[in-house]
Protein: Mate-domain-containing protein
Organism: Linderina pennispora
Amino acid sequence: MQYSHDDIEEEARQNHIYLDEAKYQATKALPMTIAGILRSWTSVLELRAIGHIGSKELAGRSLALLVVNLTGYPFMYGLGGALESLCSQAFTGARDVHRKTGVYVQHSLWVFLASYGFLLLLWLNPDVVFRLLAKTDPEVVANAKIYLWFECLYFPCIVVQTCLKRFLLAQGLMRPTVYFEAAGLAAMYVSLHVFVWNPSTSLGYPGVPLASTMAANWVDNVRLITQLGVPCAVSGVASYGFADLATIAVTMLGTEALAIQAVLNSAKSALTRTGSYVGMVISNRVGNLLGAQNPFGADLSSHVCLSMVLAMTMPFVLAMLLFRRAIAEFFTTDEAVISGLIPTIPLLAVVVLFDMLSNVLTGVLRGQGRQGAAAVIRVIALYLVAVPLAYTLCFPLHIGLYGLWVSLAVGFVTAALAEWFLVWQSDWHAEVLRCMDRINGLNKVVDLVGSPLQEDSPLISSSVTVY
């Protein structure tokens, strides 16, 4: 096949744009990756401290997080997901950039304050939930209550931080997130040393959640925040809720199995948190490009980010497959728990790989403002596919905890493939029009005075913008 000079020049131009975008995303993803690692190590320190106290304390933390993951964190993810769409698109596409983005954050905080009372009532009186778990050890329940009391202090801080981080990320400011997480990790380490590890000042198990606490247009805007936030909350419930449903099932298998589940759940969260932070990067990147009316750039950036995350995740997956026993011994010294962890770590590796890819894909969908589609996929993949499979493997076939994680792997693989198909089929020109309608109330392209990101971004400039 013969190529003309113009064809060769066009291919070189496309390759140049791709490389420029990869460099740009790398500069933004690197600090967010560091932030994700710091946040993961904060969780790892907490989990390790509890794991070396005892299996009942570890099981108590698992029960407490069941309540938090089903009631509190989905609400936080909803606010964060809504702000990722609204702030990133408004920052490059709104006619009154700074006022619009600031008002979105303020109204999100008011929505949280209006709902926090309900969470306090539930977390300070969790017996209504724990009574459903008839076989749970009373000592495990008591440990869960202690953890929830401290979570009541910690949760408002992390919600405010979540909203402020989205405000900064929409402007391409990634480093403050690193500073937030570095401060949290340092505070966690010092607090664990004082309240847990130092024999003269140790509080025992209560010292661990205490250390965690030490670490971390009105009507129309509320309509938009709710419209985009509810699907993000549903997606969060679907993802974390399925793992917590597995935890409920594991309570029927005994304290030892519950301790194994606590390690697996926490390890998954720690390992995939970097993916969720990179997902924030691509969500804001796509939102910025759609706000700047650049469908070509938004499409290109999504492909670049997927390639980067896949390359970043594979070494971790290989490490989990090769060093299973060392990983298990890092979290606990209980030989029975270690023996239960070793055969399930390969399933954890599969879940981590596809959840990392899913984090990027849902980030692209959030950048488009299509949280509802991501939520539908998560509900179908995890509740209509994985839950029936989990029940069958765990109880009729008596495979137990291993069967639960097989079903979790199937669910995340299904979700990631469906989200990839949705992103691949995206009509990016139509997404630009929907963005303009959402931010400016005009279902058409508008003339922008100038993007705040033009000097910083290779794709947001007149030379490459294509509509």
